[in-house]
Design brief:
about 240 residues; alpha+beta; four-stranded antiparallel β-sheet; 10 helices; about 50% helix
């Protein structure tokens, strides 16, 4: 009996140790998104990932090899989905959804709250967490895919800087919006902003960019200017 308990003890120690290091290695392979950018998909993945490792470590009835195969295969699937979402914007929207405007020009969009199953108390709480106590002070509020609220305050309510001695308090012309992603025009966003492809190309050429394919990310700013981040190859080849 004593030898059985002794063998069982060391078996559980070994299973727990191997599960611990397997989880550590696989988490490093999958990257930091599990910690820093928990979308709903990654939240569920993280819970399942930990549950499988816990099952391997604590349940003697679970064959160790079967558990490890399950853990590794789950990691492979998660990695493949991450690669797919990086390569495909449609897949990214399908898996992680996309940010939703819940406040626009000081007005709460009730339909957007219902769609995201968010009630008013939660919205006002999220605003207060950013030291905003009045919805009318908000120009735009977006519910991000990780559940956090991003807020653009009205110009008159924004904290002044040294450059704001004669600050313009007129409302922004545009909500900062992505119009190019990984060399591809995002036409649905351009339609929402009432912008044309010619407008984008003129903005690119003003910054000595000749092709949309050279751009990794471009975002229309509140004043109508275009922020551009080039792809590595284009950046290195530019004069």
């Amino acid at each position: 009996m004593e030898s059985f308990i002794h063998a069982h003890f060391w078996e559980m120690i070994l299973r727990t140790t191997l599960s611990f290091f397997a989880l550590l290695i696989l988490a490093r392979v999958l990257g930091k998104k599990q910690l820093g950018q928990l979308t709903f998909f990654h939240y569920i993945t993280g819970i399942t990932f930990g549950s499988i490792a816990s099952e391997i470590a604590s349940q003697e009835e679970t064959p160790f090899l079967d558990g490890m195969i399950s853990l590794i295969w789950w990691s492979v699937l998660t990695y493949l989905m991450t690669v797919i979402t990086i390569k495909s914007k449609k897949a990214r929207v399908l898996i992680d959804d996309k940010p939703t405007i819940v406040v626009q020009k000081g007005l709460i969009l009730e339909s957007a709250l219902r769609k995201n199953r968010l009630h008013l108390d939660e919205l006002t709480m999220m605003l207060r967490e950013q030291a905003i106590f009045s919805v009318q002070d908000v120009e735009y509020a977006l519910l991000e895919t990780n559940g956090k609220l991003s807020v653009l305050q009205k110009t008159s309510e924004q904290v002044a800087t040294k450059q704001d001695v004669k600050a313009d308090i007129s409302p922004p012309t545009y909500l900062p919006t992505e119009v190019i992603s990984d060399g591809q025009l995002i036409k649905e966003n351009m339609v929402e902003l009432d912008l044309t492809e010619d407008w984008v190309m003129k903005k690119l050429k003003k910054q000595n960019v000749q092709s949309v394919e050279e751009v990794y990310f471009a975002q229309v700013q509140t004043n109508g200017s275009l922020y551009i981040s080039l792809k590595d190859k284009a950046r290195h080849s530019s004069p």
